[in-house]
Task: inverse folding
């Protein structure tokens, strides 16, 4: 299958928003999505972006029945490990179902890894749902390790009112 991987730009935010919702539907968490196209435009394409993105795109002759040519994406940002130094965190990796199994997800993940290495990163971190066996298996085939299973780390989060309370002096 013919496709290209390229840096996302502000004009891609409509399609990224669409695919974020598709990913949330797949993960059965659509009620958790609060992000808007405007948020993506502001947070990813301002002077000091909070994230970066890449897009998988197919030629017009391979567009979806809905007319989409942007068929996958990855969002990532840089972070830091107190043990290993510079890291890249892949927030999302998504390929539309009809385009899976064609190497596009691997190409997106490979590009994030390339960008991380070019920035001096030593780690590529991400999360995956424990019930998503096909994705867990895919990541293991890429040479990734399951740090929850191997080291016992749990990914934690604090948001909303709990975050507000925590921020109180």
Result:
């Amino acid at each position: 299958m013919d496709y290209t991987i390229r840096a996302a730009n502000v004009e891609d935010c409509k399609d990224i928003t669409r695919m974020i919702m598709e990913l949330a539907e797949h993960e059965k968490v659509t009620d958790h999505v609060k992000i808007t196209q405007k948020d993506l435009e502001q947070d990813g394409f301002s002077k000091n972006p909070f994230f970066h993105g890449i897009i998988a795109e197919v030629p017009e002759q391979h567009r979806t029945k809905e007319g989409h040519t942007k068929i996958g994406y990855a969002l990532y940002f840089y972070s830091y490990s107190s043990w290993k130094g510079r890291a890249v965190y892949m927030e999302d990796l998504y390929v539309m179902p009809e385009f899976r199994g064609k190497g596009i997800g691997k190409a997106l993940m490979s590009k994030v890894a390339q960008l991380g290495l070019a920035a001096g990163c030593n780690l590529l971190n991400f999360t995956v749902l424990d019930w998503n066996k096909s994705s867990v298996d895919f990541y293991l085939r890429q040479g990734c390790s399951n740090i929850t299973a191997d080291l016992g780390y749990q990914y934690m989060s604090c948001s909303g009112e709990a975050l507000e309370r925590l921020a109180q002096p």
Remarks:
- Residues 104-118 form the longest helix (15 residues).
- The chain has six helices and five strands.
- The chain has a mean pLDDT of 95.
- Residues 137 and 144 are 10 Å apart (CA to CA).
